[in-house]
User: Fold these one by one.
Assistant:
Number 1:
Amino acid sequence: MNIIEIKDLVKIYDDKKSVPVKALNGIELSVAPGEFTTIVGPSGSGKTTLLNILGGLDDPTSGQIIVNNVNLSTLKSREKIDFRMRYIGFVFQAYNLIPVLTARENVEFIMHLQGWPKKKRQERSAFLLKAVGLGDRMNARPGKLSGGQQQRVAVARALASKPKFILADEPTANLDSKTTENLLDMMEQMNRNEQTTFIFSTHDARVVAKARRIITIEDGKVIHEETKK
Amino acid sequence: MMISWKNIWRNKTRSLVVIAAITLGLFGGLFSSAMFKGMGDQRVHEALSKEISHIQIHNPLYLENPEIGFYINRAGEVLDFIRQQDGVAGVTSRTKLTVMIGSTSANSGVTVLGIDPDRERQVTELYKAVFDSSEVARELKIHDPEQIQAFLKDSVGAYFKGVSRNPILIGEKLAHKLKIKVRSKVVLTFQSVDGNLTGGAFRVCGIYRMNNSMFEEANVFVRADDLAKLTGLPVSKPHEIAIILNDFNETTPLVNLLKQHFPQLEISGWKELQPDIGMMNDFMNAMMTFMIVIILLALGFGIVNTMLMVVMERSKELGMLMAIGMSKIRVFSMIIFESVLLCLTGAAVGIGISVLVINYFNIHGIDLTKFAKEGFEAMGFSAVFYPALGFDFYLLVTLMVVITGILASTYPALKALKLNPAEALRTEV
């Protein structure tokens, strides 16, 4: 049973002022639970658009996208926000942590939104921050953490509410080789331990090397798929 | 709310500037309001406690034409009824005539009030308006009667003491006009109850001083018994009954009750007796509120500007919050709370400083005697005033600050809600 089913997905950007741009052109794709998948392709190929639609941040022009048995196109705006909160974790290229909160508070934030009890929040955030190697930096604010450390906090935050899958858009773009290596190892470990599905969008060959499934898109279409054994 | 509070301190300088603006604005508004209120309250207190009391009763004909014959019939019955009512602190009756007063130097038309000094004490604070030399003599432990007499002679007298026969209390302004002092003799000329012109000699026992020079010039006080002997009108037939209540807010209910029981009499509350006092009271309250509203309006625009900058600066972060599942109502509340907390911080500091400064001057007073004594007193105000504000006004201002914070941040918060998370995440700040 796949966690994501995409059928004939089309996205056309048309602001009525300039020429319409077809960002996705009939994507067909399915993702099974526990996958560690990366979507690759040149700039403008439609990777970010696909991730935005997968994350319910954008609506397709046509086609169907079923996530966890829910057709995202049928959800209202408020339901989509709730859906994102419960089922999807996000890791962004620029980390996007809340600067006024500590690492621990950042991780607890989404659990707080979900109404977790304080004790459970604290236990989970401590567990995750230790798991990403930041057990000793839990009370540091993002400004006091390195880029790699901030991205680790972002991964811990994405995992905090036990989502069905995590969407990571260029998560290593701002990191050096060693940090990237460590981060990828950590995410792979999380993928195995927590059985969380990871979907990356990246240019980074190091990410591609770690992925067990590689989907290549170009001009808004899937042109190649490869699954490693 | 926690994140809103932390957000305030992201840009400390900007937040402190906004807080300082709120603090100074509120302090200015509150202190000015306290000055207005202090002046107004003093005037109202002075008028109610020394001049008109809370309720007055007259024969309606007397109000049209203040003739000696238009007295209150069965005044004893009225007085007994009033004394039985709850909330009545004191009641007294007065004989009130328009007379000529003359000294060796000048004459003047005045109103003479024949009073019972002891009962008058319960109703008005006239006795406090006299520099009472006998009290001072007692405090100084002067026991020798001759010494006391000598002391009284050179002073501004006492409240119906020091003169045994026909004592009269006159205002300072009138004393200057007639060029008289304590123990000077004056002659009152008036109409007796049988319509003949009559008069009598009185000796000044004390000179009273109020903040209303017009009142000082126009009213003199004698003992009702002394006046009755000269006019032939018994004390039991007064022209005026004055009532003071424990709470002046109870004026209207008692006026209505008295009107029901004594429909033949004219019964007036203090706002009817001196409409200018009531109007001034209402005007001062309106001015205070208006001033605070103007200040808060100006601050409100400052807060709109600040919060719009906040939303623009944090659009990427707001996009992230919406992406990870923060609902619109939470985003909206977060921005509103931030503005309200910013306003409340400024309000707490502003109100705190105001309370300290206003309380200081409420005790020590602001003395403008050197600058505008006569001007103030001509209008019935004291040149020394004591700023005062009630707890309810501080509470009202706090509430208005909260409302300003909410209203001022509504537009920026709505702008935040219109952000598209996917686009906001691509914003480069």
Note: Chain B has a mean pLDDT of 87.
Number 2:
Amino acid sequence: MASPLSEYRKLIGETEYQLLWKLGATLRGLRVVMVNSTREGGGVAEILQNLVPLLNELGLDTTWEVIGGAPEFFNATKTLHNALHGRPEPLTPEMLAAYDQATEENSRRLRGALNRDLVFIHDPQPAGLIQALRKPEQKWVFRCHIDLSNPYPEAWEFLRAHIAAYDASVFSHPRFAQKLEHPQFMIAPSIDPLSDKNRELPDSLVRQTLERFGLDPERPLVTQISRFDKLKDPLGVIAAYRLVKKTHPDVQLLLAGGGASDDPESGEILARLREEAGKDPDLHLLDLPSGSNLEINALQRGSTVILQKSLREGFALTVSEALWKRKPVVASDVGGIPLQILHGKTGWLTYTVEGAAYYVRRVLNNPAESLALAKFGREHVRRNFLITRHLREYISLFHCVRQPGQNIIRL
Amino acid sequence: MPESFHFLTSIQAIGLTGLQAQTLAELYQGLEQVDGSSIYHHTYRFLRSLHFLPDTPRSDFASWLSEKLREEELAEQIAVLDLRAYPTLRDLRQALLAIIGRARNDPRRWTRTAPPGMEFHFGRSTSIVLSTGYEAAGQPELVHALERVDVGSLFFHLVEAPLHQTSPSPWNNDFSAWLDGQLQLGAEAKAIAALDVYQLDLETIRERMIAILGGKKWQRAFRRALDRPGPSSLSPLVRGWLRRFKSNP
């Protein structure tokens, strides 16, 4: 359930709150439609569930449509997704046919719903709708939530052919920018401070949650929250923990994630981790079901240090989630992490297992320094990674798309 | 009758050019090619969005040179540029090119590459300028509004708007130009012009401007209490009263 804008007022401050209303008034009545491939599950749906009501509250007439498709279509788009992330997975003729067929069906079904001033397409699944549905008076924006820093060329060429006709593209990080004829923008994703995953929790609930999962609330806890995936380097996390354990024998490690039940690859990795963990009673592996937002919130709040030792990342909003909870964070310098962690100012950036272990020890040994970092980390997120900033940037983007080529737009 | 001062603010839409640099040579070429809005974005974004941090980073160019190319000398020279000495983005671009160009005769440095994935990506800013709703016809109203506007508005009038000026002005910011031109308050104008907006955070600048213009300390304390984010120890009644004070200029 989304929160009204007034609920954010005390978190963002009066001036930012008033600014949002003024900005909304400049586009009152603009008819916007958001389009993606799922109503629930995944970061894009999570953001839209909150942003769409907020845009409406500010006066932009915003709707949200979801495309459908046969399993073959979603298998094809999963392959496309992996290939855009850089995996060398070719798109077969059958996959291309499934994509075209689903696009045609969705175009028929959504023809009326997409007849709006501004059509905002999220990710590659609905990207092809523009071919059949674009009207000359409309603006179409392609919003890519995928790490496009090193795409498999065939996949990128496929996507480029579809998005060339758009008026603008939006990426989450400067590294994801591409050579395109139309303007490109950067808008970072955001967290919702009022959601179950991020809202304040009573200490008693945090403690109960730790105890429920067999963790000792009295001892230091190092946590990485990520799905079980090689790119999150869980084995590297265990190696770093073992180095820390040499000087801090009371430390506990928690690797908590999801997806192992319905993703064979995650299942294999979890099994490998269980093998690696052996009989260490301080090394905890948690395969959480989807929707465990309150549990994740409590586990983050109950941790002493949050790790995000990924090898590749899209944006890694888990970092902002941890910073928002005033937690010291040690994270890899990949994807969107350096936008959130300013080394030595809001947390620590690292490149190696040894580096990760060093900074975890530094946090454990220097609580006052860690507290200062956490304070600035929280402020950094408050100003730059909350959903209200996302809202402000979307409205700014709409202005840029309506008045292309301007360096200054006076409202 | 003096003209009123209209408090504007700006928000930035960040654009991506798709242009990147992996060496000093490519950074130099990029700096020659890109639009002024790109120079503006990479130099001033820290001042806008990270001004609350101690030891705020000074420039994307400096950070990249230091962290990815280990060009500490060039990085420091760019980081410590006194931006007040460059009234236009054209001037600033020339200064950046002059500094980076010093390494041109050392081919080893000039072509040394940043590690893969650590390239410099040229972005750009579009400023969306809008009214805050506050205006001032005299000094007391100016103080009243200064107590209330967002720091983005201060940044706009102190830094951004002067950079976009097409005609030369003897003042380096909008407030001084108005105080001198409309109210004939030359001393106050001069004191505000002397504030180092590149060394102090914007909240400190706000405090000092209000002090220069004779604002009351208790009013500043009220504003701070109202704008402090997060749960407040103040009762809802007091907060409601403060909010009315704030929204009813």
Note: Chain A touches chain B through 48 residues (CB under 8 Å).
